[in-house]
Amino acid sequence: MQHSESASLLNKPTVRIKIIDTRTPSVNDPGTVSRPLSFTIPKWWKVATLWFRGDEKKKAWTYAAVSVTLCLLNTLLLVRVSYAQRMFETALAGKEQDDFYKGMYQFVVIIIVAAPLMAIQYYLESRLTLEWRRWLTNRLLMAYFSDQTFFRLHIQEDHQIDNPDQRICDDVPQYTEGSVFLVTALIKKLFNCVAFTGVLWSIEPRMVFFLLTYAVVGTWLTTYVFGGRLMQLQYTCMQREGDLRFEIVRTRENAESIAFYKGESREASQANSRLLRLVVTIVRKIQWQAGLDLWKHVYVYATMLLPALWMAPKYFAGVIEFGVITQVGFAFHRIEAALSVLIMKMADFSGLAAQTERLEALLDAVVHHGHEATRIQQVPSSRTLGLSLEHVTLRTPGSGHLIAQGLDLDLPPGKSMLIVGPSGCGKSSLLRAISGLWTSGSGIVRCPNFSQMLFLPQKPFMPLGSLRQQLLFPSSGPKLEWGQRHGSQPNDKELLALLDDVLLSELAEKVGGLETELEWGHVLSLGEQQRLAFLRLLLHQPALAFLDEATGALDENTEASLYTLLRSSCQTFVSVGHRMQLIQYHDLVLECVGKGHWQLQTSAEYQHRRARR
Ligand SMILES: Nc1ncnc2c1ncn2[C@@H]1O[C@H](COP(=O)(O)OP(=O)(O)OP(=O)(O)O)[C@@H](O)[C@H]1O
């Protein structure tokens, strides 16, 4: 029964799916730029050396040194294998029993030594990859969350950095894994090349020249024809994977709104279009990889019998022993594999190049602090308790739409101000500028230290965690880290009393206590979330509070009682709101009068003017 249900779900989509867009990438898409692979090497080096020059460089170099040593031992063992093989094959052909068993014995000894060495090498390379990944992910996360970079990337005008989450979670492990795999492969091949060139040179030097020419021409052709193209396709694939995942996450985040609008078929079409764009890119990648595979086989099989063909006349003339033919073949193919590493692993190299491009761009973006010629300057100070704006000109990011032109205002401590104006005139944007989120423009904002200010947006943020953690937010521990009550530890009684104050007296009991963990953003109504956010304000008692339509979802009576409470616990605050009843709780009104101009007046003046109008 279950099986047939799931089968029917797979066979019959319950929403009608219309394909919206299966465009091929635009020319501005960074993934469409096909570049030579060599272009990426300095970028790879830049990202790779971060760990090797950072605070864990000792650990990094130790892992790397041990791995390289093991690669060297591995190669030496292989050289020994080639001699042991030569010995027992010659003994076999000449029916010399003693030499045959001697060769066998050497072989067994080599295997006994090699087996644990290979296991240790695998373990060390895996640890090296993991440690590197941990360090790099941690650095990126720190940079992403510091200085509100996550917000800056989000509003970035040209949206250069697609899917930063995917870059951190997927590209970093693939980059470190790919780098360790390819670098150790290169080192092994280099050692093999040196060691077996010695062997081959001592027997047939002309064969070494032939191999060198063959590999150089082959590598150049492969890189020229396949390298850049495969890298570009890998890049686009990653981008498309991220876009598809983002669409599904976006649907989950907005599940209720989409369900109300019955917008599922549009969202499904959108997701399906993204899937199709991904599939189109993957098909192209498979086609190019198939071409590369064909070329690799031609390249390898063309020289398969060459060592035997080359050496056979000497063997028939009795100049060399039988075992020499096998040893030459062994050495020839080892050197060929070493010199052709770029050809054989072209798909891996191009994948690593794509991951490098994405990580390097992210690293650049997270350490980059905007290149506006002039910026609004933030001057937070523990001595400032009010707020002052000195000649602030503010523009929206990207479009540069003017929000405020040369705005001067002074909000002394103990005073409150209401920002009013038509929808879209820039009330919330002013708060964004004061908090330092938007910096496009000029002028100076003087305010208290950030730990003395609290911003309440219209849609409060509900972090994962218990009810207690919701109440204590933005403080993360049991002791308050923000506001006037910095360092104090509110007890349960106090928290329950505050819940009572914000008219959420039954909440703790209803959900099963302060330690209950729920998806708070989904289980609480917007009005309940706003009251809970108000509680945070009453609890922390910041020197300066900002409320951006923070009571917009509440009825007028509840709003009035919350503002009455606010006036008793927080002296200086700035609100954004549309309801006229808010005026009575504020001393000043900042009104948007259009074209970037704002007028500051007392509440009484504002009401008087409104009445006249
Ligand atoms: N991330 C953004 N990038 C560019 N422009 C933006 C961005 N966010 C908002 N804007 C624009 O800035 C202008 C001011 O927006 P803002 O949210 O400050 O208006 P508001 O006065 O608070 O509106 P409302 O009363 O409807 O909440 C609007 O024209 C809006 O389209």
Automatic annotation (TrEMBL):
The keyword tRNA-binding is annotated on this UniProt entry: no
ABC transmembrane type-1 domain segment(s): 65-351
Keywords assigned: ATP-binding, Membrane, Nucleotide-binding, Transmembrane, Transmembrane helix, Transport
Entries under PROSITE patterns matching the protein: ABC_TM1F, ABC_TRANSPORTER_1, ABC_TRANSPORTER_2
UniProt domain ABC transporter: residue ranges: 387-612
GO molecular function: ABC-type transporter activity; ATP binding; ATP hydrolysis activity
Matches recorded under Gene3D superfamilies: ABC transporter type 1, transmembrane domain (1.20.1560.10), P-loop containing nucleotide triphosphate hydrolases (3.40.50.300)
Keyword Iron in record: no
Membrane-spanning ranges: 60-83, 104-124, 180-201, 208-227
One of the Pfam families matching this protein, by short name: ABC_tran
Gene Ontology CC entries for this record: membrane
Highest taxon in the source lineage: Eukaryota
The family this protein is said to belong to: Belongs to the ABC transporter superfamily. ABCD family. Peroxisomal fatty acyl CoA transporter (TC 3.A.1.203) subfamily.
Entry protein name: ATP-binding cassette transporter
